[in-house]
């Protein structure tokens, strides 16, 4: 699966600086993330925030102090996936076959977006809402993807009118389609290949 995503701002941030969390606050934050990952994996990203707080052993008010809304919590949960995707894009940036590198990276996004039900839909929605905490996921991904796309275009493998924004929307749409057809594990890859045929120069 997956705006300028930086490490999620910890609770206790002020407008000018981020104060370190107290030990108990840090423990609550980490427990909430652990339980959110479990709940999202079991029930999708629409999982009850109240249940997540309860499973973490804290009140819902504590959850909201750390994560003001659902998208903020999702943003924090997806940090590991984002780091992995950005790292992979860096590795692929000097690949001998720029088009194949771009395809591999897009496939990795689809795979990550498929880890939690509801992620693809949320990312598609957040891409049009700069105020959403989840929109922070797309800027570094877009920057990383732009570099891979530009190399593929410079190599003459991809049409010059293709944008990374369109590609990311397409990958989210493919991940969403695959989510709706769990009995067909090859669907995402087939759709990606069909899409890419239309992108070739």
Automatic annotation (TrEMBL):
InterPro entries: Homeodomain-like_sf, HTH-type_TetR-like_transc_reg, HTH_TetR, Tet_transcr_reg_TetR-rel_C_sf, TetR_SbtR-like_C
Keywords, ordered alphabetically: DNA-binding, Transcription, Transcription regulation
GO molecular function, one term: DNA-binding transcription factor activity
Cross-referenced Pfam families: TetR_C_43 (PF21597), TetR_N (PF00440)
Membrane-spanning ranges: none
Domain HTH tetR-type: 26-85
DNA-binding segment(s): 48-67
PROSITE patterns, A to Z: HTH_TETR_2 (PS50977)
UniProt name for this protein: TetR/AcrR family transcriptional regulator
């Amino acid at each position: 699966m997956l705006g300028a995503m930086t490490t999620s701002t910890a609770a206790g941030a002020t407008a000018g600086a981020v104060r370190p969390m107290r030990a108990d606050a840090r423990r609550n934050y980490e427990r909430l993330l652990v339980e959110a990952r479990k709940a999202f994996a079991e029930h999708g990203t629409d999982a009850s925030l109240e249940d997540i707080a309860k499973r973490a052993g804290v009140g819902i008010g504590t959850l909201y102090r750390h994560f003001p809304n659902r998208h903020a919590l999702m943003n924090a949960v997806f940090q590991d996936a984002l780091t992995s995707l950005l790292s992979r894009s860096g590795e692929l940036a000097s690949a001998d076959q720029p088009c194949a590198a771009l395809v591999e990276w897009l496939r990795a996004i689809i795979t990550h977006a498929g880890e939690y039900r509801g992620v693809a839909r949320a990312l598609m929605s957040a891409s049009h809402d700069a105020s959403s905490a989840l929109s922070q996921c797309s800027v570094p991904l877009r920057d990383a993807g732009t570099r891979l796309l530009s190399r593929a275009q410079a190599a003459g493998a991809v049409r010059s009118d293709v944008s990374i924004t369109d590609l990311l929307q397409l990958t989210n749409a493919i991940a969403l389609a695959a989510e709706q057809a769990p009995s067909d594990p090859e669907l995402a890859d087939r759709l990606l290949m069909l899409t890419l045929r239309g992108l070739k120069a």
